[in-house]
């Protein structure tokens, strides 16, 4: 039944309803006829896209609950779809997973299948064997003195450390940086008094390296390096 003012009754929120859900018949005000359900957390990019498309293109007015049902149906189809085959080598798998849209973050962690014996030295060695670009960063590895400048090492920065610090004036904590040197070492700053890192970088201990994060980091560097122009590092 519709009224002269165009309403079809009352929405559950108490406002005048101007439409009814095409699936369940629930009367809806203008706002609730447009309300979209939130996407579930922890799903793949492909599943997220399918869910959002399904809830948006529903034919005619739909309540939030019925839109969610349509989205969950599309989500189930995405989750049931076959996953892309992954390479055997652990770094090739990481590279493939970095661009995989069909797996959730949890699936990517499980499917990484890293060897239990893998060390940071192994990862750095394999990365240096594959990288075809010159390093773009340099960090001091000895303190300066009155008579001499600090020694520097060149390499590629990667997020892989477990130790965190508090930056001055910033809220929250941040992972200490790390750099893969051209010699295959992982170096990074140490913490000083006040929970801030100092200017001199040192060898990073194996127990301070998150191997899974390191592998994902070097995989991303290798992928991005293909789009970077070759350049000669500046002379110092």
Any overview of this molecule?
This protein has 236 residues and is of the alpha+beta class. 33% of the residues lie in helices and 17% in strands. A five-stranded antiparallel β-sheet has the order 5-6-9-10-11. A hairpin with a 6-residue loop joins strand 3 and strand 4. The longest helix has 17 residues. The chain is elongated. The termini are far apart.
Summarize this structure as a short list of keywords or feature phrases.
alpha+beta; 236 residues; five-stranded antiparallel sheet; disordered N terminus; 7 helices; elongated; two-stranded antiparallel ribbon
- How many strands appear in the DSSP assignment? 11
Largest sheet: 5 strands, antiparallel
The helix fraction, in percent, is 25-40%
Distance between the termini: 82 Å
Q: How large is the count of helical segments?
A: 7
Taking all residues together, what is the mean pLDDT? Answer: 87
How big is the Rg?
A: 27 Å
Structural class: alpha+beta
Largest beta sheet: strand ordering: 5-6-9-10-11
Low-confidence stretches: 1-5
Order of helices and strands: EEEEHHHHHHEEEEEEEH
Estimated share of beta-strand residues: 15-25%
């Amino acid at each position: 039944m519709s009224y002269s003012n165009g309403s079809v009754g009352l929405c559950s929120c108490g406002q005048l309803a101007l439409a009814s859900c095409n699936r369940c018949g629930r009367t809806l005000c203008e706002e609730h006829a447009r309300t979209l359900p939130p996407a579930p957390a922890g799903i793949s990019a492909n599943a997220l896209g399918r869910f959002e498309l399904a809830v948006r293109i529903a034919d005619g007015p739909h309540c939030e609950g019925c839109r969610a049902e349509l989205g969950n149906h599309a989500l189930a189809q995405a989750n049931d779809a076959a996953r892309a085959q992954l390479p055997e080598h652990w770094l090739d798998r990481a590279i493939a997973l970095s661009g995989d849209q069909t797996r959730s973050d949890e699936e990517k962690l499980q499917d990484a299948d890293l060897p239990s014996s893998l060390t940071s030295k192994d990862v750095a060695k394999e990365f240096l064997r594959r990288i075809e670009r010159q390093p773009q960063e340099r960090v001091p590895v000895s303190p300066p003195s009155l008579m001499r400048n600090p020694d520097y090492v060149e390499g590629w920065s990667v997020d892989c450390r477990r130790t965190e610090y508090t930056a001055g004036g910033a809220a929250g904590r941040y992972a200490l940086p790390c750099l893969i040197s051209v010699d295959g070492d992982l170096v990074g700053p140490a913490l000083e008094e006040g929970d801030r890192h100092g200017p001199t970088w040192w060898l990073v201990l194996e127990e301070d390296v998150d191997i899974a994060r390191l592998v994902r980091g070097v995989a991303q560097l290798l992928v991005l390096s293909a789009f970077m122009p070759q350049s000669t590092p500046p002379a110092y």
